[in-house]
Amino acid sequence: MIVLDTVPSGALLLTVGVLFAAGVYLLLERSLTRVLLGFVLLGNGANLAILVAGGRAGAPPITGATAEPMSDPLAQAMVLTSIVITLALVAFVLAMAYRSWQLHGHDEVQDDLEDTRIARLADADAPSYADSDAEESGSTLDEEAVAVRDEVALPDRETPSGTTRGGEDA
Amino acid sequence: MLHLGPFALVPWDQPAQLVIAAVVVLAAILTARARRRLKAVILAGVAGYGNAALFLLHGAPDLALTQVLCETLTLVVMVLVLRRLPPYFSDRPLAASRWVRLAIGVVTGLVVMTFVAAAPLVRVHTPVSVDFPVEAETFGGGRNIVNVTLVDIRAWDTVGEISVLLVAATGVASLVFLRQRSGDVLRLDRAANAQAVASGERAGNQPARRGKWLLAGPTLDPGQRSMLFEVLTRVIFHPMILFALFLLFSGHNAPGGGFAAGLVTGLALTVRYLAGGRFELGEAAPVHPGLVLGTGLFLSAGVGLVALLAGQEVLESTILDLHIPVLGDVHLVTSLFFDIGVFLVVIGLVIDILRSFGAELDRQAEPFAWSIGERRRVEVRTGGDRA
User: Which residues contact B326 (CB under 8 A, 6 or more apart)?
Assistant: First the structure.
């Protein structure tokens, strides 16, 4: 028999709220490692939320173990799937962070030039391409790349503050 | 019970829940504030273990088991990658946008809290799972309803999930190995040959395989070996595999199942790798992870299709009660083979992760050194200042 009382527990609600808040805060960062940690926290929060939506705490859903009412097995099966997928996702994002570190020396997400360009064209309601007879208008992608706001201090551009922080640790 | 307008709330299910919730909340806030990578990762791990405890208190032993295993594996994998990344998150002047992000985070948290508080109370239909206990026993032939749900009632979900695992494992391997699906299987004879060539000895002069705690122990730099760890690994590896098999076969009626069993096996392999290095991993699992992943998915999907040949629905399971002379009565449900497929896919994922983030990163970190002899020569040449 399954518990049909669904009044949620305040302690779990608070945990879900804080996990989501911390997770979203980290997701909006640029460093891929922090984005990943944000996703892990968010995932934990979502798992708890699904469990709460399934109803109150009860006995383990194993028939014949106890006569007490059990917690909802459907919510649990769904959460189990999500836990293992989170593991796979963690591995994948870590591989991306590592690759980014290999290529750029940091794991920060850069501005997407093409995306900015498309957004600007959409704002101006302009066509996304012009045929070869039309006059070249505006700046080239390379010129835009110089102008775009890049918050990452690259080692060869200026004195990186990150290196000195790292040096303290050694 | 508290009533706030349309909402109703109980403070907690058990008092212990409040304590663990406080730990998780604290760990989550500190993770968001941490400036050091390792600190952030470990705090997120604390939040994860706390979540496992909350699952256990909620009456979900399967979830708690899987969460603990996954969290442990996540910690190991993160630390394996973190040894290559800088220790601190880069310092950036983002004072203004930080408050905006914090505000977005808090608002999202509040909205989700309201949603989670409201959703369970506005239920109008009886949950579909009320019949699960009976269905699990009659059609699924098992008493652990969560496991039967995974391998029988909602088996399509699981097929989708293991496909995702396969894709993620392939993605990880290709991002790290770049030019091939995954590198060679690193067996000991390769290390021995390289070592022999490096030190000018004849190949084939292999060290005796007896009298060592771990096969590949001697391939490690003596300064990096831990005798205690090697002995412990030798002692616990086989019990861990045995425990994994127990979880696999008992999962239908007790907490466990293919996922938990695969993760325990994966952790056993992780311990072997951490204690004995990349050649030890090659000796412990001398297969290509792609093969394990493929076999697993083939088995799971194949069992589902065999049911079709027998005139049943896809992935429908059959309960066979056999009497085998020596073993006695055997209660065999065909979904066990489905679970074995899941078990193999999870193992394949873990091997792929260990080979990419462990073995391949080790190799990339020491580009000229293939074995001890060679590494020593490099150290002599460069004055031994390589980290």
Answer: none
- Best of B1, B18, B31 to disrupt the A interface (most A CBs within 10 Å) is B31
Largest separation between any pair of C-alpha atoms in chain B? 84
Within 8 A of A100 by CB-CB distance, chain B residues are none
pTM of the model: 0.83
Phi, psi at B319, each rounded to 5°: -100, 125
Q: How far is CA A94 from CA A32, B24, B111, B291, in A?
A: 8, 23, 29, 23
Nearest CA in chain A to B41: A37
Whole-number Å distance between alpha carbons of B81 and A95: 8
Distance from CA of B209 to the nearest CA of A (A): 34
As given in the structure block, the two tokens for residue B185 are 């299987």
Of residues B132, B165, B171, nearest to A74 (C-beta): B132
Nearest-by-Cβ selection for B31 from A22, A30, A166: A22
- Residues B274-317 have pLDDT tens digits of 998 888 898 898 999 999 999 999 999 888 888 888 888 888 88
What residues of A are in contact with residue B67 (Cβ under 8 Å)? 83
Please tell me the distance from the alpha carbon of residue B146 to that of residue B120, in angstroms, as a whole number.
Answer: 20
Of B70, B126, B353, the CB nearest to A84: B70
> Residue ranges per domain, chain B?
1-91, 131-387
- What is the helix, strand, coil percentage profile of chain A, to 5? 60, 5, 35
Domains along chain A?
Answer: 10-104 (1.10.287), 113-128+137-169 (no CATH)
SS3 content of chain B, % helix, strand, coil (to 5): 70, 5, 25
The confidence score (pLDDT) of residue B119 equals 86
Is the Cβ pair B13, A11 closer than 8 Å? yes
